[in-house]
Amino acid sequence: MTVKFGPSGNSKSFYDEGYKTSVDMPKWLKQKGLDAYEYSFGRGINISIETAEKIGNAALENDILLSVHSPYYINFGSSDIEIKEKSQEYLRKTLILADKMKADRVVLHPGSVGKNSRQQAFENLTLAMENAVKMLKELNLYGRISICPETMGKKNQLGTLDEILEICQLDETLIPTVDFGHIHALGRGAINSTEDYEFIFDRIENALGKYRLDNLHCHFSRIEFTEAGEKKHWTFNDTQYGPEFEPLAEVLVKRKISPRIICESRENMAEDSLQMKKIYIEYLTKLNYSLQSEQ
Length: 295
Ligand SMILES: [Zn+2]
Prior knowledge:
Layout: E1 4-7, H1 12-16, H2 25-32, E2 36-40, H3 49-61, E3 65-69, H4 81-100, E4 105-108, H5 118-138, E5 146-149, H6 161-168, E6 177-179, H7 180-186, H8 194-208, H9 210-214, E7 217-220, E8 222-226, E9 229-234, H10 246-255, E10 260-263, H11 269-294
Parallel strand pairs: 1-10, 2-3, 3-4, 4-5, 6-7, 7-10
Antiparallel strand pairs: 8-9
Helix pairs in contact: 4-5, 6-8, 10-11
């Protein structure tokens, strides 16, 4: 098992090269040497069943692991009956299309605290996630698609690492989406060393065990933040913003953890995914070399 890398959405260069549809992305990614792709319904679910199936077939033919990001407007923190019902409906639609795409993971933003107390919002989220697991079973997707609640970057959003771990303890089909940029932003520059990454992985392993640690879903990008948390995603060239990928690569190699890492860099997500893969393979080669010389 090795770490899998790929972009969220389509790079600017994909369009610059004359491509127009995401159906061509899996082949394009394979040619670049990448392994994964996250398709976003973030701003809305506007894809036909036919296109969803075409993307899914292309991903399968090109050995690209496919995940889907559910709409950003899903809000499981809300106490409003209408928002609760609509949010469940958006998730149901996402799951049905994710199945047509043969995706195995659906990423989810838990929702906002809003006017509730944080505790009330978290209780709403817990009930909504229990319902989401039931929905997977009703749709016969349990065991085929994992729902992956994401660690969020803003204070008023649900989704601290502890909250995500507690939610994932509800059912083993729930896998955390660990967004390192968001954790860095929420902690106002919290990730600076291999120890900081180790600390995150230790907490995940203690809460969810080795299997889910080994099969994490991750998002990575450099990020700008303010007092309130996340402000803006940047690219690997914008080195004034953290976190750094090198210490993460070192920890992944050392602990033999093989997550799927989706890059959310602005415009350059495929290029930056490749850069991460290159750095990771360098660490992997270095470790193998040092193991050989010990023998
Ligand atoms: Zn997200």
